[in-house]
Amino acid sequence: MHMLYDSPSYIVVQFDVPVDPSPGDAAHAALVEHTNLPSLQRDGFEIVDKFTRKEIFIEGALAQTFQEGVEALIEQGPDVDDLDAFIAQYANLGQQPVVMH
To answer: Coil, helix or strand for 2?
Structure first.
């Protein structure tokens, strides 16, 4: 888990979680070992909207698109408002309320 961004509006955390195949998944383990297929991963980004107190976890193709968009934006030297505007596009998809325990 890596905190990538923390502004007055949003928090973005990156998760890199390897997933071990279950003992019954020997076929996948053998396929990974003998090919160039990647091992199972459960990577993604958690985006928390501090104002609406909602969060979303994105993974897969959506996470890849998010990462590529952030990298392209960083190359332009954005300010906080630019980053927040980009992140808002994804944060608006969030429906899960943030609950403090």
So the answer is: strand
Residue holding tokens 């509006």? 9
Alpha-helical (H) ranges within the chain are 26-34, 60-75, 80-91
Tokens of 10: 């949003």
Integer Cα distance of 18 and 20 in angstroms: 6
CA of 19: how far to CAs of 2, 13, 22, 70, 89, in Å? 18, 19, 9, 26, 29
Q: How many CB atoms lie within 10 A of CB 82?
A: 13
pLDDT tens string, the chain, 101 residues long: the values are 889 999 999 999 999 876 665 555 666 556 556 655 555 566 899 999 999 999 999 998 999 999 999 999 999 988 899 999 999 999 999 888 887 65
Q: The tokens of 59 are what?
A: 């993974």
SS (H, E, C) 52-65: CCEEEEEEHHHHHH
